[in-house]
Write a structure and sequence with these properties.
This protein is α+β, with helices and mostly antiparallel strands. The chain has four helices and 16 strands. It folds into three domains: 110 residues, Elongation Factor Tu (Ef-tu), domain 3, CATH 2.40.30; 62 residues, Beta Barrel (OB fold (Dihydrolipoamide Acetyltransferase, E2P)), CATH 2.40.50.100; 117 residues, Topoisomerase I, Chain A, domain 4.
């Protein structure tokens, strides 16, 4: 009797294998969900705490120029030197200005002597005027006494005529004396408690002293000498740069942030700053302000008309606006240097 063929047996997965499949799928879903949550969280942090590595340490550069011209006779500083406020930077030859000061002081002494002489002249003119007034008063009284005597023939008409002539001459002399008093007073140049002659001479002395003092140029603040390219003997011109100083009083970081971050950055927020020159050492800063304008070639006015460049580029990149972050005092252990690359993270209000 022929044997009946049996169908092949179907293998059933073992329970352990099924568990591994389920666990693997769950892990895959969890990994995807974790990635999505992490991306959302990182994106949220990215906007809540904006960060940029497009940032640089900055300080103010102050150009020191003399108020007077002349050859430099002293230069006690060197390039990259730290200087204190009031420290001597350089000296312009003071001899011509000292000579001008000596002349001005001598002129002041002569002016004081002239003022004394003019004061004596004023007193003499006043005395002369008072003398003439007294003589005129006497002559007028004499005229008044002899005029009634003419009708009684005690005096002659010639006597009365001579008396009247003396009174008229006295009036003319008094007018002349008054003019002399005014002229002497004007020459004296006295206005209240101030004498114009002395004031002008004193002003000339003060100006000459200023010029002598201007020959000695001191540091206006604590800073660092930079790019020093002069030597003793070089001619310094009034108002032209001689020394450049890096202002050590205020350091800041200019951090360029994308425009879609600006809504999350406000003045007064704290910032964490890392400098490439000091890796691993954090610095603290405070947002001083956010820039309000950028220059753009496209759209700039040319001859009164806007210039718009034709473009087929439909991709619009975010603009970057400078955010000024004020740094703390310069630490001698970690001194700031202008131009150092920085990484800035805005941490909000604390």
């Amino acid at each position: 009797m022929a044997a009946i063929a049996q169908p092949p047996a179907v293998s059933t997965p073992a329970p352990r294998a099924i568990g591994r499949i389920i666990i693997g799928r769950l892990l895959g879903v969890l990994i995807v969900l974790s990635a999505l949550v992490s991306a959302a969280w990182v994106t949220r942090l990215y906007y809540i705490y904006p960060r940029t590595d497009d940032a640089y340490v900055r300080a103010n550069i102050v150009v020191v120029a003399p108020h007077v011209s002349g050859p430099i006779v002293q230069l006690p500083i060197r390039d990259n030197q730290h200087v204190k406020e009031g420290q001597l930077l350089f000296v312009v030859d003071p001899r011509p200005y000292q000579s001008a000061l000596d002349r001005a002081e001598a002129n002041l002494m002569l002016t004081n002597l002239q003022i004394k002489a003019l004061e004596d002249a004023v007193r003499a003119a006043n005395s002369r005027q008072e003398q003439l007034i007294a003589e005129a008063s006497y002559d007028e009284q004499y005229l008044n006494r002899i005029e009634p005597l003419l009708s009684k023939h005690f005096v002659t008409a010639n006597d009365v005529f001579n008396a009247r002539s003396r009174v008229q001459a006295d009036e003319a002399s008094i007018d002349s004396a008054r003019s002399e008093v005014r002229r002497s007073t004007n020459d004296l140049g006295q206005f209240g408690n101030i004498n114009a002659r002395r004031k002008a001479a004193e002003a000339a002395v003060y100006d000459a002293k200023l010029n002598v003092n201007y020959c000695y140029v001191d540091a206006p603040f604590d800073g660092f000498v930079t790019n020093l390219n002069i030597a003793v003997g070089q001619y310094a011109n009034e108002g032209q740069e001689v020394v450049s100083l890096v202002d050590n009083r205020t350091w800041y970081v200019l951090a360029n942030f994308r425009e879609d971050f600006l809504a999350h950055i406000q003045p007064g927020m704290t910032a964490q700053v890392f400098l490439r020159s000091y890796p691993g050492h954090p610095f603290r800063g405070v947002v001083q302000g956010v820039g309000w304008a950028l220059y753009q070639d496209n759209g700039a006015s040319v001859a009164g008309l806007p210039q718009i460049e034709p473009t087929l580029n439909w991709v619009r990149l975010s603009q970057r606006f400078p955010v000024r972050v004020t740094m703390g005092p310069n630490d001698e252990r970690f001194p700031f240097r202008m131009g150092t690359t920085a990484v800035v993270t805005i941490q909000g209000f604390h």
